[in-house]
Amino acid sequence: MSTKSNLNLTLKIWRQKNNRTKGRFEIYKISDVSTDSSFLEMLDILNAQLIEQNKEPVAFDHDCREGICGMCSLYINGRAHGPDTGIATCQLHMRMFTNNQTIVIEPWRSVAFPVIKDLIVDRSSFDRIMAAGGFISVNTSGNPLDANAILIDKEAAEEAMDAAACISCGACVATCPNGAAMLFVGAKVSHLALLPQGQVERKRRVLNMVKAMDDEGFGNCSVIGACEVECPKHISLDTIGRLNREYIKAWVYK
Question: What does the domain layout of the chain look like in residue ranges?
Fold first, then answer.
C-alpha cells in the first residue's frame, strides 16, 4: 500500500526500435515511487524492474541530470519536459504527479529529430546548424586582445548571456505546432550578434544558419509563442525578432 510520500503509477511509454520501424505505446505499472524522486530516477527504477524480469529496458537519453546538457528531453503528458515550468526533464520531480495517475511519455515529434530508439531522438540537426555559423573568428597573430579586456555594453552583455542560456534541448521544436526551430536559432544568433567578438561573421552567420535550419526540415515560425512558454531557460521571443532583423539586414546588404 502506498503512503503519503509514495505513488502508484501507470506509465504509457512510447517504444520504437529505430526510425525505420513502427512504434507503439506500452503500458507499465510501477509502485511505491517516492515523491522526492526525479522523473529520470523513476525511469531508472522501472528499468531495473524490467531487467529483473528479463525484459528490454526503456531507452532514454541523459547526461548531467542538472538541467545543463538538455539531453534528457521528453514529452510528458502533452508537455515538453512535463508539468512544470523553467525545468528540464531531469529537474522534474514526482511530487508534480498524483497517486494512481497515468503518465504518457513520448520522444520529441519532429521530422528533423528522427527516433533513434524508444525515447531517444537524433538532435544532430542542431549541431549542423551550429556548425554552419555558430562560431567566431579570432586573430591569433601578434598579441590578440584578451577577451576580458573588451568593453561590452552592460545591456548587450546581459541580453547576450540570456540568449546563451539555451541548452539546445529542442523543447521549442517539440512544442511548436509547426516544428519550428526559430527560438533555438534566434538564441544562438542573438548571443553572438550582441557581442563584439561575433561581428566578423555577423552577416554570414545568420544567412548560413537560417539556410541550414531550412535544409534540416524545420517548420516556419508563426509566432504562436508556445516555444517561449515551454523553454526550460525562458529564452524570450525577442530572440526571434532579432533573428528576423539580422537576417533581413544581412540579405539586403550582403
Answer: 6-116, 124-252
Distances (CA, A) of 108 to 56, 118, 135: 21, 11, 27
DSSP alpha helix (H) spans, the chain:
39-52, 124-133, 154-164, 171-175, 182-193, 202-215, 226-230, 238-252
Kindly report which listed range (66-80, 134-148, 207-221, 234-248) carries the lowest average pLDDT score: 134-148
Architecture of the domain whose range is 6-116: Roll (3.10)
Contact 116, 18 (CB under 8 A): yes
Please, are residues 240 and 186 in contact by the beta-carbon 8 Å criterion? Answer: yes
CA distance 40 to 120: 13
pLDDT digits (tens, 9 = 90+) for 3-59: 457 999 999 999 999 999 999 999 999 999 999 999 999 999 999 999 999 999 999
Residue owning grid cell 522526492? 36
CB 113, CB 16: distance < 8 Å? no
**C-alpha span between 216 and 219 (Å, rounded):** 9
Superfamily of chain region 124-252: Alpha-helical ferredoxin (1.10.1060.10)
State the Cα–Cα distance between residues 208 and 66, nearest whole angstrom.
32
- What is the pTM for the complete model shown? 0.92
Alpha-carbon span 119 to 37, nearest angstrom: 20
